[in-house]
C-alpha cells in the first residue's frame, strides 16, 4: 500500500503516507477579498518531520492556523488525525502569566495539567517557571511556546518560524529538542520556516509555498539540489548558517 | 468627476420632496419635518466625525445647545443696538451667524484636549463633557439656570416674519442644505480625501504626512458648528430653552442615526435621521392612542432605538445607505463598481492572525465610503 | 473632626459603589477590549429586581442574591448580543452595548415604570471609633472589600481566571491553544453583570434607583476604572474611593451641585493625562 512508486507527488523520493497525521487537500482560505491559500495540498505522516518553506506572505501561517482551527477554510479539507499542537509565529505567549501558567493554559480542555512531563523534556523551563513570560529572552520564550504546545500531548506539533529572531546557537538547541521529540517519542513535526537551510537539514521532506500555491515538493535532499529552490531559498548566503 | 444619473435623480427627488412637503404637511407633520431637518444637521457632523476621523462623539448635543443658547441670549438681550457695526442688522440673523461660530470655536477649544483620546475613551469623555455642560448651564444665571430661557422671539428678518411652522420648515431645509453643501465640499476637498485615509489608519495617514491631529480637530469644530447652527433655529422655533431639553440620551440618538444611515455618508446621515425620527414618531402616535398605558410611548421609542441600532450594527455595519449603494450601483453601471477597500488585507497582514476573522470595521467604514454625490477616487 | 471622619467614611462607601461598577467594566474590557456602556444598566436591573423580589415577600439577603443573578443574566445577554457575532469590532460592540442599554430602558420601564424605587437596607447607625456611621455604608465597604479579594483570587489563583487573563493577554494565542475566546467573552460579560448587580443592590438603599440611573453609575464606574487604565481591578478600587471622597467632600464643604462635576473633571483630567503620557496607545485599534 505504501509503495513509493504509487506516490503522486512530483518527485518519487517523497513518501506521503497512507495514514497521515495531517492531510490537507485543495485547501482554499480567504480573508475578505484576498485569497491566502488557493487549493493547497499537503500531508504529514506519523512520525515524520516535514518542512513547509516559502517567502513572507506565502500563506504558511494561514495553513497552520487552519490546521489549529483558528481560521476557517473556504473550501477543501485540513484534517488532523489525533491531536495537533501549534507553536505560533512570534511565540505568542501570555505575557502577563508566569511560565508555568502558560504551560498549564496549553493543556486547556484536558484533565491533566501537570507540567512535570514537559519539564522532563525541557528541563530549562523549570528554572524560570515562576517568571512572567514577557520577561524572558526570545530563545526562552520559544522554549516556553514549545513546552506549552507539548502540554496538549500532541501527536503532531506544528512549529511556525522556529528560528525567527533567534541566535544560531539557540536555534540549534531548540532544533535538537524537536529532533529528540521526533526520534524518541515518534511525534510528527511540521516545521514552517523561512530559513530553508535549517528546515532542509532537520526534515526529510519539504513543501514550497509561494503566493498561496504549493509550487514544488519533494525530499529535502532533492529540493536542496534543485537549482530554482536553491537560488530562491538557500542562495546568496541569506539562510543562517547553523 | 462624473455623478451617475440615478444619483442625480435621487438628489433632485429628495430636493423636490423637501420643498413640497411643507405645503402639504399639517402642524404636527411640520414639527416633525423641522425636527428631522435640524437633527440631520447634527447627524451630518457626527457622520463626518465617525466616518472620516474615525471618532465617536457622544456629546454632540452640547454644541446644539450652545448654538441655541447663543442665539437666545443674543436675541433676548439684543446686542445689535450696542455694537455700531451691527446697527440695523436683524438680531435673529446675528444669532444665527453667531451660533455656529461660538459652537465651532468651543468645539475647537474642547477638542484640543479631548481629541488626544481615542475610541472608547473619547466616547466617554464626550459624555462627561455633556454632563459637565448640563451642570454649568444649571448653575449659570445668564442662561436661566435649571429653569431655562423663556420667550425667545420667533425668527423674523426685517419685515419678514418667518416664525410660522411652514416658513420655519423652509428655514430648516435651507440650513440643512447649507450644512450638506459645506460637508460635501469638505469631503471632496484635498483635506477631505486625506481624512478618508485617516479613518482607515491613523498611523498610516500620519506617516504619509497628513496632519492628523489638525484635521481631526477641524472636523470636530465643523461638526460643532453644524450642530450650533441647527440649535439656533431650534431655539427660535420652540421659543424656550432649558437644560432638561438636552439629555445625554439625545446625543446617543444622534449617533444612532449616523450609524444607521452610514458613517461617513452625508446622504446616509439624512436617511438615518428621517428613518429613526419617522419610525419613533409614528410609534409614539400609536403609543398615545387610547387604551395604551401612559408609559407606552417611552417604551416604544427606547425599543426602536435599541433594536434598530443592534440590527444595523450587526448586520449592516456600514450603515443602510452605503450598503444599498454598494449593492445597487454596480448593477446600474459596471464601470462604477465599488472601489477597492483602502484598509486592505495583504496576505501577510491577514496571515498574522490578528486580523484573521475580521470583517470590515465600522470605524473604518470611511474607507470605501463617500457621499453618493460624487465619484469614487478611482473614477475621477 | 468627627464630622470629617463621617464624611470620609461616606465618601469611601460611595466610592466603593463606583469601584464595583468599575470592576465590572474592567472585567469586560480586559478580556474583550470592549467598554461596556451597559454596565450601569446591570446595576439598575439588579436594584429594581431586588425591590420586586422584596415586594413579593422574598427575604432580604435571598432577594439580593437573586437580583445579583438577574444582573449576571443581563450581562450574559448583553455579551451575546455585543460580541457573539464573529468579527464584531470593539468600537462597534461599544455602540451595540449602548443599543442594549436602550432596549433595557424599554424593558425596565415596562416592568417597573419610570419612577425611582428604593430598597430597604441596613437601618440605623453604628459607632466606629466614636464616629457615627450608617450601617449600610459599612456594609457597602465590607462587601466591596470581600468582592475585590475574591476577584483578585479568581484572576490570580484559579485556572478559569488565568484562562480569562490569557484571552486578554493574547486572544490569538488563546485560540491557538484551543480556548473558545467568544465563550470566554460571554463569561466576562456575565461576571461584569454579577459585579454590576452587587453594586446595584448595595447602592439601592442609599439612593433611589430608576431606569436612567445607569448614566451616573456608568460615568462614576468608568472614572474609577480609568484610574487603572481599565485593566487593573485594584486600581479601579483606589480610583473609586478617591472619587467618592472627592464627591462627598465637595458636597460637604463646597457647592453640592458641583459634586458630580468634580468627578467628571477628575475623569477627564486622568484620561487626558494618560493619553498624553502614552500618545501612541490605541487599545481599540489593536
TrEMBL record, chain A:
SMART domains: AAA
InterPro entries documented for this protein: AAA+_ATPase (IPR003593), ABC_transporter-like_ATP-bd (IPR003439), ABC_transporter-like_CS (IPR017871), BCAA_Transport_ATP-bd_LivF (IPR052156), P-loop_NTPase (IPR027417)
Annotated coiled-coil segments of the chain: none
Protein name: ABC transporter ATP-binding protein
Originating species: Halostreptopolyspora alba
Gene Ontology terms for molecular function: ATP binding; ATP hydrolysis activity; branched-chain amino acid transmembrane transporter activity
Domain ABC transporter: 22-236
Signal peptide as annotated in the record: none
Keywords associated with the record: Amino-acid transport, ATP-binding, Nucleotide-binding, Transport
GO annotation terms (biological process): L-amino acid transport
Family that this chain belongs to: Belongs to the ABC transporter superfamily.
UniProtKB/TrEMBL annotation, chain C:
Keyword Cell membrane in annotation: yes
Primary subcellular site in the record, as a coarse category: membrane
Annotated membrane topology: Multi-pass membrane protein
Domain of life of the source: Bacteria
TM regions (residue ranges): 6-29, 41-59, 65-84, 91-112, 137-155, 185-206, 218-245, 252-273
Tagged with keyword Repeat: no
GO molecular function ontology, one term from the record: transmembrane transporter activity
Subcellular location: Cell membrane
UniProt name for this protein: Branched-chain amino acid ABC transporter permease
Organism (species): Halostreptopolyspora alba
Taxonomic lineage of the native organism: Bacteria, Bacillati, Actinomycetota, Actinomycetes, Streptosporangiales
Amino acid at each position: 500500500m505504501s509503495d513509493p512508486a504509487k506516490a503522486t507527488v512530483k518527485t518519487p523520493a517523497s513518501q506521503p503516507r497512507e495514514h497521515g497525521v495531517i492531510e490537507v487537500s485543495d485547501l482554499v482560505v480567504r480573508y475578505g477579498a484576498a485569497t491566502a491559500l488557493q487549493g493547497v495540498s499537503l500531508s504529514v505522516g506519523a512520525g515524520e518531520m516535514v518542512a513547509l518553506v516559502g517567502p513572507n506572505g506565502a500563506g504558511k501561517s494561514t495553513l497552520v492556523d487552519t490546521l489549529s482551527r483558528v481560521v476557517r477554510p473556504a473550501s477543501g479539507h485540513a484534517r488532523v488525525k489525533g491531536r495537533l499542537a501549534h507553536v505560533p509565529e512570534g511565540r505568542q505567549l501570555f505575557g502577563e502569566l508566569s511560565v508555568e501558567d502558560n504551560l498549564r493554559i496549553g493543556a486547556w480542555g484536558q484533565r491533566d495539567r501537570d507540567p512535570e512531563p514537559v519539564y522532563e523534556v525541557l528541563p530549562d523551563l523549570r528554572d524560570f517557571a515562576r517568571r512572567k513570560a514577557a520577561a524572558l529572552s526570545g530563545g526562552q520564550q520559544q522554549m516556553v511556546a514549545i513546552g506549552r504546545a507539548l502540554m496538549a500531548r500532541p501527536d503532531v506539533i506544528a512549529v511556525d518560524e522556529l528560528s525567527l529572531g533567534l541566535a544560531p546557537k539557540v536555534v540549534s538547541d531548540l532544533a535538537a529538542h524537536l529532533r529528540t521529540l521526533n526520534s524518541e517519542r515518534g511525534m510528527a513535526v511540521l516545521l514552517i520556516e523561512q530559513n530553508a537551510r535549517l528546515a532542509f537539514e532537520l526534515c526529510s521532506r519539504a513543501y514550497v509555498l509561494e503566493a498561496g500555491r504549493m509550487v514544488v515538493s519533494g525530499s529535502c535532499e532533492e529540493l536542496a539540489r534543485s537549482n530554482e529552490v536553491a537560488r530562491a531559498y538557500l542562495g546568496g548566503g541569506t539562510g543562517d548558517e547553523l | 468627476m462624473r455623478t451617475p444619473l440615478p444619483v442625480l435623480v435621487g438628489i433632485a427627488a429628495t430636493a423636490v420632496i423637501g420643498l413640497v412637503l411643507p405645503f402639504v404637511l399639517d402642524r404636527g407633520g411640520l414639527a416633525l419635518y423641522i425636527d428631522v431637518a435640524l437633527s440631520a444637521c447634527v447627524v451630518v457632523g457626527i457622520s463626518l466625525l465617525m466616518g472620516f476621523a474615525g471618532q465617536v462623539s457622544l456629546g454632540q448635543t452640547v454644541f446644539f445647545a450652545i448654538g441655541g443658547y447663543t442665539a437666545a441670549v443674543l436675541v433676548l438681550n439684543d446686542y445689535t443696538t450696542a455694537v455700531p457695526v451691527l446697527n440695523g442688522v436683524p438680531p435673529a440673523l446675528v444669532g444665527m451667524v453667531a451660533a455656529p461660530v461660538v459652537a465651532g470655536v468651543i468645539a475647537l477649544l474642547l477638542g484640543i484636549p479631548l481629541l488626544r483620546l481615542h475610541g472608547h475613551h473619547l466616547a466617554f469623555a464626550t459624555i462627561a463633557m455633556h454632563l459637565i455642560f448640563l451642570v454649568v448651564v444649571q448653575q449659570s444665571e445668564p442662561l436661566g439656570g435649571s429653569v431655562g430661557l423663556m420667550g425667545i422671539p420667533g425668527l423674523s428678518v426685517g419685515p419678514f416674519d418667518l416664525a410660522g411652522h411652514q416658513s420655519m420648515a423652509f428655514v430648516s431645509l435651507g440650513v440643512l442644505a447649507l450644512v450638506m453643501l459645506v460637508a460635501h465640499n469638505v469631503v471632496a476637498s484635498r483635506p477631505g480625501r486625506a481624512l478618508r485615509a485617516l479613518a482607515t489608519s491613523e498611523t498610516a495617514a500620519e506617516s504619509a504626512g497628513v496632519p492628523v491631529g489638525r484635521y481631526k480637530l477641524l472636523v470636530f469644530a465643523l461638526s460643532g458648528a453644524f450642530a450650533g447652527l441647527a440649535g439656533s433655529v431650534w431655539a427660535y422655533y420652540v421659543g424656550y430653552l432649558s437644560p432638561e431639553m438636552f439629555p445625554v440620551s439625545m446625543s446617543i440618538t444622534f449617533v444612532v442615526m449616523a450609524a444607521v444611515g452610514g458613517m461617513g455618508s452625508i446622504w446616509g446621515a439624512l436617511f438615518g435621521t428621517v428613518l429613526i425620527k419617522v419610525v419613533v414618531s409614528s410609534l409614539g402616535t400609536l403609543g398615545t392612542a387610547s387604551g395604551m398605558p401612559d408609559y407606552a410611548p417611552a417604551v416604544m421609542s427606547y425599543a426602536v432605538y435599541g433594536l434598530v441600532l443592534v440590527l444595523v450594527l450587526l448586520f449592516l455595519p456600514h450603515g443602510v445607505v452605503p450598503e444599498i449603494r454598494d449593492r445597487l450601483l454596480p448593477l446600474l453601471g459596471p464601470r462604477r463598481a465599488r472601489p477597492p477597500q483602502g484598509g486592505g488585507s495583504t496576505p501577510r497582514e491577514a496571515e498574522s492572525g490578528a486580523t484573521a476573522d475580521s470583517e470590515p470595521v465600522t470605524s473604518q467604514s470611511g474607507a470605501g465610503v463617500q457621499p453618493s454625490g460624487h465619484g469614487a477616487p478611482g473614477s475621477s | 473632626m468627627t464630622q470629617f471622619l463621617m464624611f470620609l467614611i461616606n465618601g469611601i462607601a460611595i466610592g466603593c459603589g463606583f469601584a464595583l461598577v468599575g470592576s465590572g467594566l474592567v472585567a469586560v474590557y480586559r478580556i474583550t477590549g470592549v467598554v461596556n456602556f451597559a454596565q450601569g444598566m446591570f446595576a439598575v436591573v439588579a436594584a429594581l429586581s431586588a425591590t420586586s423580589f422584596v415586594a413579593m415577600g422574598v427575604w432580604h439577603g435571598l432577594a439580593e442574591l437573586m437580583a445579583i443573578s438577574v444582573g449576571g443574566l443581563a450581562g450574559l445577554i448583553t455579551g451575546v448580543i455585543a460580541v457573539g457575532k464573529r468579527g464584531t469590532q470593539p468600537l462597534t460592540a461599544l455602540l451595540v452595548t449602548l443599543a442594549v442599554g436602550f432596549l433595557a430602558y424599554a424593558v425596565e420601564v415596562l416592568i417597573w415604570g419610570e419612577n425611582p424605587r428604593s430598597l430597604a437596607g441596613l437601618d440605623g447607625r453604628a459607632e466606629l471609633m466614636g464616629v457615627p456611621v450608617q450601617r449600610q455604608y459599612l456594609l457597602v465597604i465590607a462587601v466591596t472589600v470581600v468582592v475585590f479579594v475574591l476577584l483578585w483570587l479568581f484572576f490570580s489563583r484559579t485556572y478559569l481566571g488565568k484562562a480569562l487573563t490569557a484571552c486578554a493577554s493574547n486572544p490569538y494565542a488563546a485560540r491557538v491553544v484551543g480556548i473558545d475566546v467568544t465563550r470566554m467573552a460571554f463569561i466576562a460579560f456575565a461576571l461584569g453583570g454579577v459585579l454590576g448587580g452587587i453594586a446595584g443592590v448595595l447602592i439601592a438603599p442609599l439612593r433611589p434607583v430608576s431606569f436612567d440611573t445607569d448614566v451616573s453609575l456608568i460615568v462614576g464606574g468608568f472614572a474609577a476604572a480609568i484610574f487603572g487604565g481599565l485593566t487593573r481591578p485594584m486600581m479601579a478600587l483606589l480610583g473609586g474611593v478617591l472619587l467618592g471622597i472627592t464627591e462627598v467632600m465637595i458636597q460637604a464643604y463646597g457647592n453640592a451641585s458641583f459634586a458630580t462635576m468634580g468627578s467628571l473633571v477628575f475623569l477627564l483630567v486622568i484620561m487626558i493625562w494618560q493619553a498624553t503620557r502614552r500618545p501612541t496607545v490605541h487599545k481599540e485599534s489593536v
